[in-house]
Design goal:
- Pathway: Amino-acid biosynthesis; L-arginine biosynthesis.
- This protein is α/β, with parallel strands linked by helices.
- The chain has two domains: 154 residues, Rossmann fold; 146 residues, Aspartate/ornithine carbamoyltransferase (Rossmann fold).
- It contains 13 helices and eleven strands.
- A five-stranded parallel beta sheet has the order 9-8-7-10-11. Strands 2-1-5-6 form a four-stranded parallel beta sheet, with helices on both faces.
- Helix 1 packs across helix 7, helix 7 packs across helix 8 and helix 7 crosses helix 13.
- Bound molecules: phosphoric acid mono(formamide)ester (CP).
Length: 312
Amino acid sequence: MKNYTHINDIDDINSWIKEAKALKKNPLKDIELGKNKTLGLLFFNSSLRTRLSTQKAALNLGMNPIVMNVSGDAWGIEFLDGTVMNGNTAEHIKEAAQVVSQYCDVIAVRAFPTLIEKDKDESELVLSSFVKYASVPIINMESATGHPLQGFTDAITISENATKKKPKVVLSWAPHIKALPHAVGNSFVQTMQKMDVEFVITNPEGYNLNPEITKDTPIYHNQKEALKDADFVYTKNWSSYDDYGKILKTDSDWMITNEKIGNAKFMHCLPVRRNLVVEDAVLDGENSLVIEQANNRTFAAQLVLKKILENG
Ligand code: CP
């Protein structure tokens, strides 16, 4: 595997889960693999988990991670070809990506969508420009339309906590006061479509994710009906896809509560706003998997890095 930019870069989800679980049991077993190799982490947006877990994964492999907050600390980067650069951008991605490639053996990039220009977001301009112009492998640390490190993490966490062969997994939209990206929801859908689970999505009218991603996954607009007999409830807010980037609904009737999810395990990628997305009792209860999900981010990233390093 050269790059890890999409959940489809996973060739066999079950074998990847098995390998990640083995790394979790013995995280330092490949400490020599990344010796004298540098991982560059470029953040165009904020992060806690991705930033720390990906560095931790690199350290577990003996790599040297270096981190840069591109927005704010670096020169403004121009991504469009042929632009007369007489505005706010001082450096073109053609040079920037090649320059970072001189210092790093692998580059990981986080770049969120505009949530204004759907076509631009769907073109994955930032991520695809790094893939195009860098001379080293690229890892997606959450792009405009996907968060494949999170998706793989969630697969590991479900596999670890499943008590039946084919659990029912529900992805439920929940309210938020800000317009949020679709990336986590998209990658979770694409991951569940690869797994042997009964998978349904529930969201209000107007909040269906991109149909090219949801494909034939059942979508319920009745949350109660969708949550019936759920083994795992994965909660995430996203803004409207059809009315691109808009907030259509903020009232609390879609908030996740213990009463709604019963004995199901609760999952969220974090960060999460308490008592807006999900009530305290769920997050503080014994069925919450959110901290273990965050823990598993390290081993998902570690396996991705391991496969890239082994590929040479
Ligand atoms: N889940 C996740 O990607 O968290 P951060 O935004 O803190 O990295």
